[in-house]
Amino acid sequence: MFKIDPTANxxxxxxxxxxxxxxFTERKHLQEWLENxxxxxxxxxxxxxxxxxxxxxxxxxxxxxxxxLAIDKDGNLVIIENKLDDSGRDVVWQALKYASYCANLKKxxxxxxxxxxLNQKAQNEGTAPDNAERVLLEFLQADDLQSVQLNxxxxxxxxxxxxxxRKEVTNTVLWLSQFGVNCQCFKVTPYQAGAELFLNVEQIxxxxxxxxxxxxxxxxxxxxxxxxxxxRLSHRLRLAFWEQALExxxxxxxxxxxxxxxxxxxxxxAGSGISGMVFSxxxxxxxxxxxxxxxxxxxxxxxxxxxxxxxxxxxxxxVFGDELVWLPLPDRKxxxxxxxxxxxxxxxxxxxxxTQWLITHMTKLEKALGEPLEKIKQDxxxxxxxxxxxxxxxxxxxxx
Length: 400
Fold this sequence. Notes:
7-stranded mixed β-sheet; 41% helix; disordered C terminus; DUF4268 domain-containing protein; DUF4268; tRNA_endonuc-like_dom_sf
């Protein structure tokens, strides 16, 4: 790895270091870094991890503890083992043991484990703890816990992290992959340039190309699996609800959804005139909601729009007629503005009232955001002029 000196138009090599030489330890440093930035172990859009426990020792009849326990967007538990400068010989065996222990965890146990983690984290920070079930459902983009497939049979993933891997470890990982064991190896290398320190995190097994192929095969297999009874019920209810709701919308003054077809998801979205930013209706088992979502691929653009709207919060809420919930979601790409109402969504007797509520409040939300969004379109075009050198400007101009 090299450091670029644009003034001299030269590159200078960075000095490869050992963690131990720099005084870094596995538990106090590497584990802490990955706990607070698990994105270092992901491969891009959609491949996110949510840390749900660290130093987990909640296994029956053993005092062993795994370094980090996470969950991915598909509801799979991810066992993360860190070994600093050397992987050692037994890291694969350790990770497999932990995976076998975690395979027995039921859905509610996973939630309880996550809640204990959030409670401890809040205690350390002197803040109120988040609700584990709510955070989990939001991360999984799910409606309710009952319909979520969480920690299903043979779904556990392994992630190994070390600066150096012994041959017996890499050979074993490659062999296990032939039997469908999802195991990744990340090589972490510290560098130094003067007083500055750098960390390179690189997935070495499987290679990114092989990983894409494996992900594609797993996705195909998942599509071919028979949906659970709960999922089928949810899909039927959602489709039926959206059919009657869209019919009611077509007869209202809100034209956002005139060209939208009913689906099986718990949400329906319509464009706002700004690419990647939509007005959404949410139909949940316990809530109906209207929201404006800013979910462009570039997080800085989402935050730009959110901040412009937040600066007009009082005016927007006055037009809307109520206080909205503003969610900047700084740890994620998307931002949201929303307003909801508790309901028994799966009781069909409530559907006419729920539908009318959605029509009324989406009409108000579109009106409240209409004028500010028109001004923001121009702001985005102006912002794009400053981004053209990075290649982002063209996209902004095209999509805004």
